[in-house]
Amino acid sequence: MRSSLLRFLLLLSLAGTGFAQSVRWDPPGGQLGFNQVSQLSLVFEDCEPDGDPAIPSVDGLQFGRPSQSSQTSIVNFKMSRTFSFVFPVRPARRSGITIPAFEIKTDKGAIKVPAASFTVGDATVGSSGLSVDDIASAKLAAPRSTVWAGEVFPVTYTLDVVRRYFHSLGSNLDWPGTPAIA
What we know:
The protein is mainly β and 182 residues long. 11% of the residues lie in helices and 41% in strands.
């Protein structure tokens, strides 16, 4: 009796793990910046891809060569595995983009990947969600609105950056000493 109960519990636990596999996009939706490279992960939970992933082509979204990562964790004697393909993506149009649902081959059989929808807006600075116009502004100014032909006059260049993003400038500002002609 006891061995039958043990077999039943073992069979029940194995049947429960058969439904744990899934494949999804991370993030599953949101906003992408127009003409800005972002990352989308194709995440395999408790399964692994069977060969290279066949991603459907999406009009207006360019996929780059993916990197791979894997992770195994054991919590309360339950082991879970995660395998990810991390794709660099770049939207080439400003309209909404949807990656359609598709099936992908895994070591546990074919699994359906749900669709992912994204809106495309202005490119943002890092992961702040703010556009460059929200963080910085630049202007050129002359001391007077009118000058004579051939007159040499100073030009002032002003760059205003929100203080918490000032450390993120790519390089020091450099204005070459060669004369500007307008």
